[in-house]
Amino acid sequence: MKIAFSLFAMAAALAIGLASAGSAHQEVAGNLKIGHPWIREAAAGAPSTYACIIEIKNDGDEPETLLGATVDGAGTGVLYQIIEKDGHFSSKPFEHGLLIKPHGSIELSPSTYQFRFKNISKPLIEDSMVDGTLVFEKLHSVPIHFMVEPDDTAPKEDAPAPSGHPM
Ligand SMILES: [Cu+2]
């Protein structure tokens, strides 16, 4: 059993390796098609990084809600919404999750929604695949793979307003 399992794991790893060479991967969970989840490369101990997903498509007749994400070596990600107002960007936790309507889809791009990770204990190396999960309201925790990518498309946010001591 053990040997069979490792062979299967190896074949799966190979398939993922081939799929990730220059093309987006897709993962399927229930009625959801999850297109190219990725996470920004980061060194171990880096203060933060973020993960996004090109698209999640809901082929089912029931709504689903994306609530959270985890990445091996980066812990639990918190979903943030990026807000643009008069050309200035800020962000806030998006606690209720992202609704995916029946036969609808959502996109998480660095300028709209990000899963933010603050406990990076292992290096996230460009072009590698890391294990993780997406957490949904109905499907609960779904194992997926994130591709590690460089990215500099996240909007620069204004520094938080200083508290106290106006000068
Ligand atoms: Cu991919």
How does this structure look, described?
With 167 residues, the chain is mostly beta strands. It has one domain (25-149): PCu(A)C copper chaperone (Immunoglobulin-like, Sandwich). It has one helix spanning 2-20; strands at 26-29, 32-40, 49-58, 64-71, 75-85, 88-93, 98-100, 105-108, 113-117, 129-136, 140-149. The chain has a 7-stranded mixed β-barrel. Strand 2 (32-40) and strand 3 (49-58) form a beta hairpin. The longest helix has 19 residues, at 2-20. The protein is globular. Copper (II) ion binds at residues 20, 24-25, 36, 147.
What are the secondary-structure elements, in order, as H or E? HEEEEEEEEEEE
Task: Output the CATH homologous superfamily.
Answer: PCu(A)C copper chaperone
**Order of strands across the main sheet:** 2-3-9-5-4-10-11
User: Radius of gyration in whole Å, from Cα?
Assistant: 17 Å
Tell me the span between the first and last alpha carbons: 70 Å
- Largest beta sheet, briefly? 7 strands, mixed, barrel
Mean pLDDT: 88
Number of strands: 11
Number of helical segments with 4 or more residues = 1
Query: Which blocks of ≥5 consecutive residues have pLDDT under 50?
Result: 16-21
Question: What shape does the CA trace take?
Answer: globular
Bound small molecules, deduplicated: copper (II) ion
CATH class: Mainly Beta
Structural class: mainly beta
- Beta strand %: over 45%
Share of helix, binned: 10-25%
CATH architecture type = Sandwich
CATH topology annotation? Immunoglobulin-like
Count of the separate structural domains: 1
